[in-house]
Amino acid sequence: MEVSRRGSAAQQSTKEETENKTKDEAIHLKRRIGLLPAISFIIGTVVGSGIFIAPKGVLMNSGSVGVSLIVWTLCGVLSLFGALCYAELGTSFTKSGGHYTYLLETLGPLPAFLRLWTEFIFIRPAVASYVALAFGRYVVEPFFMPCEAPTVLVKLVSIFGVTFVVAVNCWSVSLATRTQVLLTFIKMFALILIIIPGITALVNGKTTNFQEAFDSESFSLTKLPLAFYSGLYAYGGWFYLNFITEEVINPNRTFPLAIVFSMVTVTVCYVLVNVAYYTVMTADELLMSDAVAVTFATRALSSLAPVIPVLVAASCLGALNGGLFGATRMLFVGAREGHMPVIFSMIHIRRHTPLPAILFLYPLVVIMIARGEIYELINFASFSRWFFIALATLGMLIHRYRFPEHPRPFKVPLVIAVTFTLVCFFIVGLSLYSDPWNTGVSCALTIAVVPVYYLTIKTSFIPKRWKNFFDYYSLQLQILLEVTQQEVQTY
User: Fold this and answer.
1) pTM of the prediction?
2) Where are the domains of the chain?
3) CATH entry 3.40.50.1980 includes domain 31-485
């Protein structure tokens, strides 16, 4: 009898081990992002090209040193408010996909579809391309100073940076996360290297550039939203952790801790970096520089000046890596929900990476790099990005009211959610007046997607011949890329 029991127990144990092994070996996106990688993911994506490019845009549109520092601080506070809202959304809805998923769950399929398509028609290519252009500029510029670097060479190096990041993300999720952690430590070292000499000079009495900090004739209320756009661009990335919810270990704990620690750290560092810039450079010198950190280094860190461009380039590469890692998950989830071709919801059978989604972005980014200019790209992409972020937090408030019993492991204070939503809508609305061309084109492209939804998703008018054509080539592409749909539900 005892032997029989032992035999049954052994068989049960073997069966459980087989099931666990089968599930572990099944093709799906696995939970591999712990607290440290999550913090590195947020900081590494936020701290990219922005702090080395945006100071010029913030100062240019704010009109004075004092107002620009206030803008930097308020952008940090606003980003923290938004990140806390997304912490609630990330713990309330367990799917990956970020903005797309939250709009789908709270406001319905049309806003989610619009967000998904605008993300990959122009927002993501524009964001990735201006980060890549910053990478290219900081790599090339030191070899040509004091002359201007050739634009063609900057763009070629930018494309090389994008190619490297795409290759890493296609190869391995673990390699992409380890790369992100390494690049995050490098970029924090770069910020500290700027902060220390700047604050030291300020303590030693170098305050000339802060005298009459608010005295400026160029201040314009209508340009202020563009200053916020440049500042918020530098803080952009606090929402990327929400794109990979299904790959985060214990998200109910990881999300709030990672978000609060990351955004407080970034805000303090950004304000101190700008103080350091203004301590060493005048406002006019900062406006004349296309590579602010390099100009700063030649003044304050003459012996270490050659190192700064390398560190900044690594910082841009980290932001590019984090952005691509997160954005491809939105495309992956959108395809899984039927809002994109099914090929984009497939995973490589050995690498366990969303290979088709990653490869889809590559040519779009390359085209945007070839055509784009950094500051136009910032304003062009920012309108739709912030409009849909405001819609997502508005959807969160509506969902709270309609479904009060829905589990919310983390709940942001109502005043923070309302303040963030109203400020986002205000900035978006005023920007249509401040930069009607770029924001108007962005708005028009967003609205133009509405007929696509009604023709392809709501009521399919796609001819059967076209469907057969797409199905055939989708199958051929699936075989060529060695991809299949995930075998385990991860949400």
Assistant:
1) 0.81
2) 31-485
3) no
